[in-house]
Design goal:
It is built from seven helices and two strands, in the order ααβααααβα. By secondary structure, the chain is mostly helical. The longest helix is centred in the N-terminal third of the chain and has 30 residues. The termini are far apart.
């Protein structure tokens, strides 16, 4: 979990730097109408950095999910929402319950990955693309758990929860970048020296 916190912190710091860079480029573009915004090589380099952070954010997820469980044999739970409904059906479930920790943990484990991976795609569908990437990666891990005989339950609900975590991280990034973009658009125009009054 310490690695997950570090990866989240790295993603946040890099996100702040990327937002400041975009703000600076927007100001430069306003000063010169004919100058194209400089986003080519810098944007590619930024995406590469966020790609590395996204991969680092997967390390805690792999360490938790690809270790031996408490069971002696592998099981497959292919019925969607069965484990989630079974865990939520108990009124005495609290944060100390293993089922609650499993549900919440499966969501939180991929939030750092979703937050970092969201910067890899631009546009309105970044949440969808990040969620699909999280779902694909989670499915691969569930298959690996069964193939490696780790004594775990390979569950479709784990894939759903992991996907929700990746989507949540991307959604938070989208909200934050929209807020940053709206602030950037409301910046005062720079005064032109020697222009008409």
């Amino acid at each position: 979990m310490l690695l997950a916190v570090c990866a989240t912190a790295c993603a946040a710091v890099l996100g702040v730097r990327q937002a400041r860079k975009e703000t600076r480029e927007a100001r430069e573009a306003r000063e010169s109408v004919w100058r194209a915004p400089s986003g080519g090589a810098g944007a590619g380099g930024g995406r590469a950095v966020f790609g590395v952070v996204a991969l680092l954010a997967l390390v805690p997820f792999l360490l938790v999910t690809l270790t031996h469980g408490y069971g002696t044999e592998n099981r497959i739970s292919a019925v969607p929402l069965r484990e989630i409904l079974d865990a939520s059906a108990h009124s005495d479930v609290d944060l100390s319950d293993v089922r609650a920790v499993n549900l919440i943990g499966n969501v939180l484990l991929l939030v750092p990955f979703g937050a970092a991976a969201a910067f890899l795609w631009a546009g309105r569908r970044r949440v969808l693309k990040t969620a699909l990437a999280g779902a694909a990666f989670s499915l691969i891990v569930e298959v690996a758990q069964y193939a490696l005989s780790l004594g775990r339950v390979s569950s479709v609900d784990d894939v759903l929860l992991n996907t929700a975590g990746a989507a949540l991280g991307a959604f938070l990034v989208r909200r934050w970048t929209r807020r940053t973009r709206s602030r950037r658009l409301t910046l005062p125009r720079p005064s032109r020296v020697g222009g008409r009054t």
